[in-house]
């Protein structure tokens, strides 16, 4: 049996990802670690304080406000999930929603941020209120931005001087 107390947090995360990927290879299903991994990676990447398990309303916070985090990963394909639905928001007791997209190796691919008002408005428009909003709909909300990777600014380079 492995002594997990002796491994670093990073090693533990990498071990969990490797186990989930091998599980998917053998049994054609991904272990349910997507949400947990998405939260952890988003908090690390964006410098957010992660809330303890069971915290009601939001998963993380920083000086700008509180965040509810939803994550998606490919279940069977090698492509990043751009279709399908974001998990349903149970309440709107947060300032921002983060959509974390993982690639087929469970590595961080993109993080999208949207205001709670934009998310609530989109959820109300869903035909079936039991469903979450679509991934593509989240990425196209009015009050949203891609926060990882940061979009490169075209025309701001130093080449091609005047």
Mean pLDDT, as a whole number?
88
Give the ordered list of helices and strands: HHEEEEEHHE
Main sheet strand line-up: 1-2-3-4-5-6
| Tally of individual domains | 1
Could you give a quick summary of the protein structure above?
The chain is α+β, with helices and mostly antiparallel strands and 162 residues long. It is built from four helices and six strands. It is globular and about 45 Å long.
Describe this structure in words.
With 162 residues, the protein is of the alpha+beta class. It has one domain (7-148): PvuII Endonuclease, Chain A, CATH 3.40.210. It has helices spanning 9-27, 34-46, 116-124, 135-139; strands spanning 49-50, 60-62, 65-72, 96-102, 108-115, 144-148. A hairpin with a 2-residue loop joins β2 (60-62) and β3 (65-72). The N and C termini lie far apart (64 Å). 24% of the residues are buried.
Secondary structure blueprint with pairings:
Layout: H1 9-27, H2 34-46, E1 49-50, E2 60-62, E3 65-72, E4 96-102, E5 108-115, H3 116-124, H4 135-139, E6 144-148
Parallel strand pairs: 3-4
Antiparallel strand pairs: 1-2, 2-3, 4-5, 5-6
Based on the model shown, name its key terms.
about 160 residues, alpha+beta, PvuII Endonuclease, Chain A, six-stranded mixed β-sheet, 4 helices, globular, disordered C terminus
């Amino acid at each position: 049996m492995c002594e997990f107390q002796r491994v670093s947090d990073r090693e533990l995360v990498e071990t969990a990802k490797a186990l989930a990927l091998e599980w998917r290879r053998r049994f054609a299903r991904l272990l349910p670690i997507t949400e947990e991994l998405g939260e952890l990676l988003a908090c690390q990447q964006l410098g957010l304080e992660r809330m303890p398990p069971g915290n009601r309303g939001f998963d993380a916070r920083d000086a700008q406000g509180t965040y509810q985090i939803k994550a998606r990963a490919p279940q069977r394909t090698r492509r990043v999930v751009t279709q399908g639905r974001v998990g349903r928001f149970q309440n709107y007791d947060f300032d921002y929603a983060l959509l974390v997209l993982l690639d087929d190796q469970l590595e961080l691919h993109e993080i999208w941020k949207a205001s709670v008002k934009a998310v609530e408005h989109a959820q109300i428009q869903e035909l079936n209120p039991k469903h979450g909003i679509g991934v593509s709909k989240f990425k196209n909300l009015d009050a949203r931005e891609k926060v990882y990777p940061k979009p490169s600014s075209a025309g701001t380079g130093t080449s091609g001087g005047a």
